[in-house]
Design a protein that fits this description.
Length: 733
């Protein structure tokens, strides 16, 4: 019950617009039924009722609920006549906008054309009016069904609507029937007016030949007043011609053309433009000649001169015999040579050196003179030097472009820094980082500077640009030498960090230490102030790096000679790269440092056996890549220069293999071949002895003839079969 009351209150708050326009009668009827049923339900609530042992008094509830639906029904009853009244007013208003015109008698062609148009519209509207009238009748029927009284005013509106719709429909039929007679009547009026209108246009044309228009002595304001009056008349005639054309289309007549009208308008427009130009140009130039040069808007002045030059050209073409035209032309021509002078003298790119040239050319100073006017330019003959001033101003403009290009170059290097990186995590030790972007920027700047130097307008700033080019080339050369020095220093720094190398190459080490000291100091200063242009153009820095590179080249040459000496002493060092050999030589006190390079010095020798002690210098054996161990005898030590004890290793290697070869030959003859092959003899010995014994046996078989060869052949087959059997067995046992 409480929910229903809330819903009803909400309905009452917006019920006047709840049913749309036009009114949805079905929804309206449903709302009436809903609230009536709700009211009837509330009326059936008993005064009281017994619930078990309790008696419930519902009188207060009934009293509170019943008014809500009753208010809604009453509101709907009151609203429906209002909606009907609103609908009738709209319908009657719409009908009455057409009815007087449809039923009236037109007195002129304008009213007749309007009536024809309204009749067409009314014929299309009647059906809609009838539908709206029928809808209003249904609203009245709804009120009667609900036994609500229909107000007399609405009954009267119903009757009035029926009469008006009927009058409109019949009036449109009558008007349509009499349309042809009306067309004939008013067509005659139009046919009479058209020649009169053309005659009036001709009169305007004759007025435009009045001598006042070609008088150089007449005031522009007087002539303009005369021309503007004719323009007003011509505008009225044009509007009337357009109206008559519309009437002719509506009446189905041929539309007349008014060719003379456009010709007259063109002539009048040109003459108005000429005399407005005379008046406005006179006012404009009167202000210009007393205006200070510093206050002149050169761009606006150029625009105005060009505009009036165009006006003169059009007037010369359209009015060749009018003496006012050459007079205006002479006045405009006076300012035409003035224009480039003004534009050039107001050029913001003029520098002091350019003003000096202009002042020298004119013989007096212009810059800074606040009282120097455009009239002075004319009176003091400045226009006679217009071409020379143009050349100076053009140079200033082009130099400004070049200066902007150079400004971009300068701005780019104001914030560009060298990338400086710590090296080997050592305090105050630095190297240059990636310089690819720096080099690209440098190349771009050099291209820009060379472009500027190649310009014909560089004369005024050549010294400045040459200075930049000199600095950039110095930058480029210094950076190239710097990077070359860094590469050589980084390579040699690792080598001369070894005490052994310093001990073996004392002279070269001393030279490197001098370069190293200078390098560290330079890089420390660069890390503190890494601005690229400043760092690479420090006085004497390029020469310093050139000297360092020459010194490092000598050190490298000494190093190469040192390496060659070592290779000559132990030729197998040729199998190693210079870096690998230097790695060995720099660790001469650690003989086991040679281990990673043994395979390159000796085929398939991967390491030497120094025993279990990492600091041992005793060499016991050598190992192949397959892990085969060959003893090298006793008293073989890695002492002294590495090339010396490696030579001893090579000699002991040959000696050991020679002894093993002899023992292998003896064992071969006293052992079963299959067992001998895998019996622990060194692989190189097995391969060599087997070849030796095969050669010996083959030689013997050849001497014995065919029987010996057959026997030897069978022996080889048996040996091969024995090897196959051995290979297929477990060789790890």
């Amino acid at each position: 019950a409480g929910t229903s009351e809330v819903e009803n209150d909400a309905f009452l708050a917006g019920h006047k617009t709840a049913f749309g326009d036009p009114v949805d009668l079905q929804a309206y009827s449903d709302a009436i039924n809903k609230f009536r049923d709700q009211r009837d339900d509330f009326r059936t609530i008993p005064r009281s009722a017994d619930v078990s042992i309790l008696r419930v008094d519902s009188l207060n509830l009934k009293t509170e609920l019943l008014p809500s639906p009753t208010r809604c029904v009453d509101a709907l009853q009151a609203l429906l006549p209002e909606l009907m009244d609103l609908g009738f007013k709209k319908l009657l208003r719409d009908i009455n906008t057409q009815l007087p015109t449809v039923t009236g008698s037109p007195q002129d062609v304008a009213e007749f054309v309007k009536k024809m148009k309204v009749v067409r519209e009314s014929q299309q509207s009647v059906e809609g009016y009838q539908a709206r009238q029928e809808h209003l009748k249904k609203m009245a029927l709804l009120m009667k069904r609900e036994s609500w009284p229909v107000p007399e005013a609405q009954n009267a509106n119903l009757v009035m609507c029926e009469e008006n719709v009927s009058q409109l429909e019949s009036g449109a039929q009558i008007a349509e029937a009499g349309e042809e007679d009306g067309k004939k009547r008013f067509s005659n009026e139009i046919e009479k007016e058209v020649p009169s209108l053309k005659k009036k246009i001709g009169l305007v044309r004759e007025k435009l030949d009045d001598p006042i228009i070609a008088s150089v002595h007449e005031k522009p304001s007087t002539v303009l007043s005369f021309l503007e009056s004719n323009q007003d008349s011509l505008d009225d005639l044009r509007k009337r011609s357009e109206t008559l054309s519309e009437y002719q289309v509506a009446l189905g007549l041929d539309v007349d053309e008014y060719d003379t009208l456009d010709e007259v308008q063109l002539d009048l427009t040109l003459k108005l433009k000429l005399w407005r130009g005379v008046k406005e140009w006179s006012q404009l130039t009167a202000g210009w000649v007393i205006q200070a040069l510093l206050e002149v808007d050169a761009g606006e002045m150029e625009k105005q001169v060009n505009m009036y030059t165009k006006t003169v050209f059009q007037a010369q073409k359209g009015m060749p015999g009018n003496p006012v035209v050459p007079r205006l032309k002479d006045s405009v021509d006076t300012f035409t040579p003035l224009l480039p002078c003004v534009v050039n003298l107001r050029n913001n790119n003029l520098q002091e050196r350019h003003w000096d040239e202009i002042h020298s050319l004119l013989g007096f100073e212009v810059k800074g003179d606040k009282n120097f006017t455009l009239g002075d330019i004319i009176n003091q003959g400045v226009t006679e030097h217009a071409d020379a001033i143009t050349v100076i101003a053009t140079n200033a403009t082009q130099e400004s472009v070049l200066e902007e290009m150079m400004a971009k170059v300068a701005a780019a290097w104001e914030s560009t820094e060298l990338i400086v990186m710590p090296y080997k995590d050592v305090k105050d030790l630095y190297i240059l980082g990636d310089v690819s972007e720096l080099i690209a920027a440098l190349d771009e700047s050099l291209v820009t500077v060379n472009t500027v130097l190649g310009s014909r307008y560089v004369g005024g700033i050549r010294e400045f640009v040459e200075g930049w080019r000199k600095n950039l080339i110095l930058f480029q050369d210094t950076l190239d030498e710097w990077l070359a020095c860094q590469r050589a220093w980084m390579y040699l720094e690792t080598i001369f960090a070894s005490a052994d190398i310093i001990r073996q190459l004392p002279a070269a080490a001393k030279k490197f230490q001098a370069v190293d000291k200078s390098w560290k100091a330079t890089m420390k200063a660069t890390a503190d102030d890494p601005m690229a242009l400043k760092s690479c153009t420090v006085a004497g820095r390029k020469e310093m790096f050139l000297q360092h590179n020459a010194t490092l080249d000598k050190i490298q040459k000494s190093l190469d000679e040192y390496i060659e000496t070592k290779c000559s002493a132990f030729p197998r060092f040729y199998f190693l790269s210079a870096d690998e050999l230097l790695e060995i030589l720099s660790q001469s006190k650690n003989p086991q440092a040679v281990q990673p390079h043994m395979r390159k010095c000796f085929d398939n020798l991967v390491r030497l056996d120094f025993g279990d002690d990492p600091s041992s210098v005793d060499i016991h054996a050598m190992f192949s890549g397959e892990g085969e161990r060959v003893a090298l005898g006793k008293n073989l030590k890695a002492r002294g220069n590495v090339e010396d004890w490696l030579s001893s290793v090579e000699a002991r290697m040959k000696q050991s293999l020679h002894g093993l070869m002899k023992a292998g030959l003896l064992d071969y003859e006293n052992s079963v071949r299959d067992e001998w092959v895998v019996g622990g003899t060194a692989g190189q010995v097995v391969a060599t002895v087997a070849q030796m014994m095969w050669a010996r046996g083959s030689e013997k078989a050849l001497r014995e003839g065919s029987d010996g060869m057959a026997t030897w052949y069978q022996t080889q087959l048996d040996d091969l079969q024995g090897l196959i059997t051995k290979i297929r067995s477990d060789l790890t046992s």
